[in-house]
Every structure is written in structure tokens, then in C-alpha cells.
Amino acid sequence: MTVTFAEKLARMPGYQAGVPTGQAPEAIAAGGIAQLASNESPFPPHPKVIEAIVRATGAMHRYPDPDATLLRRRLAERYETEPGRVAVGNGSCEILLAAAEALCEPGAEILYAWPAFSMYPYLPALTGAREIRVPLAPGDVHDLEAMAAEVTAATQLLIVCNPNNPTATHLPAVEIAAFCERIPPHVTVILDEAYIEFQTNDDPDATLDLLADFPNLVVLRTFSKCYGLAGLRVGYAIGSSTFRAAVDAVRQPFSVNALAQAAGAEAVLHSDDVLFRVESTIAERLRVEEALAELGLETSDSQANFSWIDLGAAEEGEVVAGLAAREVAVRAGTPLGGPGHIRVTYGTAEENDRFLTGLSELLD
Ligand SMILES: *Cc1c(COP(=O)(O)O)cnc(C)c1O
Description:
By secondary structure, the chain is an alpha/beta fold. It folds into two domains: 121 residues, Aspartate Aminotransferase, domain 1, CATH 3.90.1150; 221 residues, 3-Layer(aba) Sandwich (Aspartate Aminotransferase, domain 2).
């Protein structure tokens, strides 16, 4: 007899890293690679956040607060809600996994658009739920009409990624509100807003107002992107207190480490400053998209910190490899569900220039 693993193991999609694994982030940076493959912030966190992290290292021999009391209270104050409605996780990815675990038995249905975030296929694979993928509409936007039509009595979880990763498109809050009206109350709707701070259609907090009307709605956010804290792993969700309790029940109590809690609790105090820095990413977005248009490439309407580029006649693998040879890391579209595309994060102006120069050489 040999060791056998659970059946679900064969269903797991596996994660393809954006940059060669086995390299520390600081080595990648020191090696001069423009890391435009993982939608991170090119800016380090706010100096006060770094100070808070350093302070927290003084108590590293203790377990973290299992209730993340300070972090949840600060988030509740910032978003004018109760701490009991704020779930925190080891990255918002952990909250997604825990939500599926808490909501789905084998045979349940999980509904999401495709292409969307590469983590979503983990949820049905882990829980034995059935996945329903709804193709994006023209313009690479969520087809909310088609998604609503796929809801059944078995639908336990519906995820809307807005702005959508990898296509960068965003639907305004009024459309999300009209969609929520149509979704029956037995369906938990997770609005994954990892990139919400980068869109310019609405006030970034517009969808939070919907929580009062829809007890089945959960707004999911992260410190990984605009706050520049991807390496620490901390995200949060605001929804009902029953959702928060369910997520907490299925995970280990210490999933958000002490440094991450301290960082998040400080970072929320500086969200206005972070939004100010977001503006420089948006300025780069306009510049890069214009340059791409001059190269004759089509992009979907980006409302995030990255572009989804249709390579047209150019060959995806060759472009990705050619850019890698020029020390520019971008994400190939095929594993993300969009053959013939690449996804490119906006970095610093210098990194973006290197990307644009490399790309124009490759297209020549
Ligand atoms: C990056 C990203 C997240 C954030 O994941 P963390 O676990 O918080 O780092 C969540 N959703 C989407 C769509 C993302 O692209």
C-alpha cells in the first residue's frame, strides 16, 4: 500500500507564479527585473506603517490577537460599521477560501465570471461544489444579466470581481446595486474589490452603502494592492456578522500574523494618503494605454493598476519570453483564461518605459 491523497487534490488548479519562484522579492528588485506580473504596488507602504511593523516585531515571541481587535475596530471606524461585521484574513484570498468552506457542501454551486481571478477555481475544487463560469460580455466586462440567469436553488456563492482581474474592467455601483436586487437572498454575493481604489467611475466606498440593503452581500478588500502590503498577507471583508462568524469558525485563530495586524491597523489611518499615491498609478495608466494604442494594440478599458492587452497577430509566448529576456516580467494570458493576451501591472515610470520599449522592439 502507498499513501493516497484526497480526491480533491486532482481537482486543484495550482498556482503559476508571476516571476520565477525561488527568488526573494528583494533579489528580484536588486537584479533589476521590472516586476509587472503580480499587480503589486511599485511603492512601499506608508512610513508610519513601516514604523508600526517594526514596533510589532518587539512582541514576536507572542501569538497574535486571535480576534485582530485593533485592526477590526479601525476598519469598522473607517467604514462606519461594527467590528462584528468585519472579517480579516491572511490575505483576502484566505477569506475567499474560508467563505467557500463555510458555505458549500459537495453539490452546491459557485458562480463567477470567466476570465476572472485565478484563485476562484480553487473554491469549487476544494469544497466539491460545482463551478459555473459565465463568459465575460463584449468589452471584457462581467455579463451580470447572464450571471443572474444562472442562479439556482443550489447557488451558494456568487463572486463578482470588480474591477475584474485579469481584464481590468469595472462596472459602476449603480449596476452592482441593480444586480443585487435580482439575486435571491439565499445566495452569498462576494464583491471582490481588490482594485477598487484605482477606478475612477465612482467614489471607492459607493458599494459599501449597499450593505445596508443586502444582508447577503459581502465586500472583499485587501491591503495587498494600493497599500503596498502584499508580502505581509492581510485582507478584509465587510458583510453580515453571521458571515464574519462563519469565516472565523472554519479557520485557525492565528491566521493574520502580528506584524500584518499592526500594519493594517496603521495603514487604514492613512488611506487618504494612499489614495493620493494611487493617482500616480492612474497617471501612468493613461500614459501606458496611450502608448499601447500607438503601437496598434487594443486594451480593455482599465480601471485598475494593470492593462489587459490583446496582442493581435503577435504570439503570446514569444512576447512574454522576449520581455523576460529584457528583464521585464509580465503575465501570460493563457493561464489566466485569455489566450493571445498579456496582463501588465503599471510600475514606476521607468519600469513602464522599459516595458513599452521592449514591447515595441518585439512587435517590429
Ligand atoms: C490580488 C487580488 C486579491 C488579493 O489577494 P490577497 O490575498 O489579499 O493578497 C483578491 N482578489 C483579486 C481579484 C486580486 O487580484
